[in-house]
Each structure stands twice: as structure tokens, then as C-alpha cells.
Amino acid sequence: MNSNRCVEAMRLLSWISVVIFILISFGCAQDIYGRKVVGETARISLADAGIEYLARIDTGARITSVHALDMEVPGGSEDKKTNIGRMVTFYTENEKGESKKVTTEIIDVSSVRNAQGVEYRYVVDLNLSWRGINKRGHVNLRDRSAMSYKLLIGRNWLSSDFVVDVDKSEGIIE
Amino acid sequence: MNLRTAMPCLIAASILSVVPPLSASPARLDDKVCQDIAGFKIIGEMEHVTFKPEQLRLQARIDTGAQTSSLGIMSQQPFERDGKKWLRFSVKDTDSEKTIDFERPLMRTVKIKQQAAEAMERPVVKLKIMLGGVEVEQEFTLADRSKFKFPVLIGRNVLVGRYIVDVNRKFSTMGMREREQ
């Protein structure tokens, strides 16, 4: 009787450890040489504003970029570069159409060359969060209405903390 | 009754199931060397790729944001071989400044939408490359990439299932070239 109960207890214990193992391996981000493995897309939220995006992870982009509309710089001038240090207020929207207002400091202006010529974008410092991991990073503000992914994660956010395995994905926007 | 035989198995099972996630982080890697992890090659944000059999080595941007890989060409000329559509195209060897001619069957063409410009058609061919000691044959879009810093763009169609990209590395597959020959 007693030994049967002991076997039962051991069996239960081994099942519990199997469940714990499964939870650990799937619940947490995979880790290789201290870097988390992120897929071709990831659900990343803007911690300060409380809005989540399905983000495209893009090692081809130097800097992270987020969808920004109706940018306003109180007391600012037309020349974006002179507004560095001022506060900017903008609306950001995720792929589901949810919208949040964000006010933050302009820390830089980046020039982006594309087919239309040179475009200047405000750069701000934002706290982005993925699976409980928070990381601050430079993000440029841009109207991404025409693009499927409203948040594009560039190399600056991935650097030193993440590696990319495009086999993995947290969703695809057609 | 089976306690004596069952106990060690159960204890072993419980220990084994908890230990792997705790011991999953291997020793620190030498960043200069391209490593194999669980069958994946770790590559950097830019790498050298060698096109075969032409043995043309070019610098490539590793771009997880691009679906299809792309190769910059200088000129192209369609022709027919055995009743099939082929393409002759020339690629500039950035090391020697020479042009290398390629001939490949034309797989298809893709329409590229650009915000300002009108839709452009680009040819797609299959190319064999060596990247990080691994040979991969995949579709490449051929385009004029003279305005871009890198003549080659490696997109997800090459990366998937083979490589993990670590943007803190650059040209980390250099040491593997000897083995490629």
C-alpha cells in the first residue's frame, strides 16, 4: 500500500516536471549565447503608450520605425533640425486600427534617402517590450499608412540582445 | 512491488526534464567565427556570398525584411535555348572591376510596385550560392542595384531554415572560404 502511494507520488512528480519543462521551453523566448531568438515578425508593444503591434523584424533597416500621424511640435519651426530637444506629440496606430497619443522628446532628425529624394524624420527614444523584455531604443517617426507593418524593428534595437530566425513568426499580415 | 525498478527511472525522468532548459546556453562564442547552432549557421548583418559556378564573390546585405533575395546586374538580354526562355546578364565583380556573364533559365518575372515610379518588371532566376560554408540554390530577383551600397541582398527565401542573423557580426564567414573551395 505504502509503496504504491510512493510510486504514485513519484509519477505525479515526473509529470509535473514534464509540464514545467514544456512551459519553460515554450513560454520563454529561446536563448542562444545569451541572445534571445526573435522571428521574422513579433508582437512588440510600445510600453509607455500601451499599444501592441505585429512588428516586422528587419535586419536591412538601420533604425526602428513606427507609424506616426498628426505630428505636432508646440512652438516648433518648419525646419525639423531646429526642433531637436522640443516635445513632439503624435498619434500612432497598430495594424488593428487601435490608436494611441504619444508625447515625447525629439532627440535627433535622421535623413532617409529613397526614390523620392531625401526625407527628414524625427527620432525619439521609446521603450519597446517583447515577451517581458524591455529595451529602450531610437525610433524614427513616419507615416506608415501605406505599409502593412506599423512597427519596423531595425538593427539598433536587435543589437547585442537579439538574433533573428526567420523560421519563426508571430503572425503574418497579407 | 515495482518501486525498486520504477524509482530510479522516475527520478531520472524528472531530473532530465528540468535540466535541459537550464543548461541550454552554451559557452560564449567567438564572434569572428561562423558557428553552427542546432544545425543553423550564425551569420552577420553583412556577409560575403560566392555565386557558383562562376566563383564570383560579392558583399551582401542580410535582410530579414525582404522576402526574395536580389542581385544587382548591369545588363540583361533574353534568349531562347531548347525552346525555353533564358536570360544572359552581366554582374560587376567589385573586387576586380570586371564584368562576369551569367546564363540562366528565366523562372518568371515579378512586378515591383514603387511609390512614385510606375510598376517595373524584374526577371527572376535561380542561383546557386555559398554562404557560411553552406550551398543554397534559390530564386533571385535581378535589378539595377547601382544606387545601393550592396550588390546582393539576401532575403528570407535563402535564410529560412538555414541561418540565424546576429546583427552584431559582420563578414563572420570569412574563415570558411578555404573550406568552400
What does this structure look like?
Chain A is of the alpha+beta class. Chain A folds into two domains: about 1-30; about 35-165, Cathepsin D, subunit A, domain 1 (Beta Barrel). In chain A, about 15% of the residues lie in helices and about 45% in strands. Chain A has two helices and 13 strands. Chain A has helices at about 1-25, 155-160, and strands at about 30, 35-40, 40-45, 50-55, 65, 70, 85-95, 100-105, 110-115, 115-130, 135-140, 150-155, 160-165. In chain A, the strands form three sheets. A six-stranded mixed β-barrel of chain A has the order 3-4-12-5-11-10. In chain A, strands 1-2-13 form a three-stranded mixed β-sheet, with no helix packed on it. In chain A, strands 6-7-8 form a three-stranded antiparallel β-sheet, with no helix packed on it. The mean pLDDT of chain A is about 90. Chain B is α+β, with helices and mostly antiparallel strands and about 180 residues long. Chain B has a single domain, classed as Acid Proteases (Cathepsin D, subunit A, domain 1). Helix content of chain B is about 15%, strand content about 45%. Chain B has three helices and twelve strands. Chain B has helices at about 5-20, 155-160, 175-180; strands spanning about 35, 40-45, 45-50, 55-60, 70, 75-80, 85-90, 100-110, 120-130, 135-145, 150-155, 165. In chain B, strands 3-4-11-5-10-9 form a six-stranded mixed barrel. In chain B, a hairpin with a 2-residue loop joins strand 1 (about 35) and strand 2 (about 40-45). Chain B is globular. The interface of A and B includes residues 14 and 155 of A.
